[in-house]
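During the no-cost extension, the postdoctoral fellow (Dr. R.K.) reprocessed legacy sequence entries with the updated structure-token encoder. One reprocessed record is reproduced below for audit purposes.
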Amino acid sequence: MPQLLQPFEAWHHTSASADSTVVVPDGCRDLILHALPHQPPTWFVTDLADTTYTVPGMVGERYWGFRMQPGAQVDAKRLLALLHKRSMNDAHDALPLLHDCMVLDARVADALQSLARHSQVAQAARQLGVSERTLQRLVQVATGRPPAYWKCLARVRRAAQALPEAPSLAECAADHGYTDQAHMTREFGRWLGRTPAAVVASPQWQAAIGASGYC
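Re-encoded structure tokens follow.
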């Protein structure tokens, strides 16, 4: 069963090398404070990722992030304007402002849970007691993405996390509702830009896909 995140999950990263960081789609938006050496820090809010991307690194570069629960709606423009007006001694001082600018609709959270749990959007709608059209409208308006986005994202993340312990790629594909191994491989390419075998072989990728997020 999918686990809901807390409204905010704090994280911090300091680059020890110039290596790029892999960022995989996780269904979350983050409020981030980014600090380059000898430069003033800047705030920004991430968008939902549709595919994997990499972020170039710099030695000494630092990030403080606050990950929002999947489905959370944030007034990013207002939030950033408020942050730019405040002087802060600690990144966590931003949390009251983030709280004031974020809304988490229980109906949306329930919808995303149901989409993660069911193999078909129609099944999720029935479980919620609404029509597919109502589910489509609710999720699209709240997140900017259709139900199919969330259903497919949850499935590929679960499959990728299960791969290291799976008896075979074919069995992993079957266990996670793919029609066959080729279908799973295509979905990995679409979301992660890697084959299942490449994901399993890379500790960096395993760490990235194992981070908290929607599944």
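The chain has a mean pLDDT of 92. The two ends are 9 Å apart (CA to CA). The remaining legacy entries will be reprocessed before the final report is submitted.
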